[in-house]
Amino acid sequence: MIRDIVVYPDKRLKEVSKSVENFDKDLHTLLDDMYDTMVAKNGVGLAAIQIGVPLRVLIINRPLDIESDDPRVQQPKENTLEVINPVILEAEGSTKFQEGCLSVPGYYEDVNRFKKIKIEYQNRDGEKIIIEDDDFLAIALQHEMDHLNGKLFIEKLSIIKRKKFEKEWKKRLKKK
Ligand code: CO
Fold first, then answer.
1. Bridge partners, residue 112, by sequence
2. What is the pTM of this model?
3. Catalytic: 144?
4. Candidate list 15, 90, 109, 144, residue with the active-site label
């Protein structure tokens, strides 16, 4: 089921999400709904708080290079990484990447991140898994893990860029 996206400056986006304790049917429904919502909104990642659920759950799905009108073909569910209760074990180096966010629609800006990270997390069955990456996935994981701590990528901008963003955003909200 597609759910509504919580959009900045909604205060819920500042909430620190709680650890998942029960790896049950409710969690699986949440993960399935997050996939439906992410694909419907053309996102590559989504944290649970972005649909208003304050749990340490995130998903990432990079689109495949396939021509199709059906987003589910470009981002098959099997390709979705489901990450629950992630913890960073190692982080090193630095890189810059242009990021966007479904909760800040239509805005993109360069953000500094660690180049390489290693994390431990649990899958939908509660099994512990360790992964490391030094490419797109590393960036996406850092962006989504920030959501679990109530942080948005716009908080990492320089003061000048942030002021410019806030000005543009206010204008946009007024137009609606
Ligand atoms: Co985001």
1. 96
2. 0.95
3. yes
4. 144
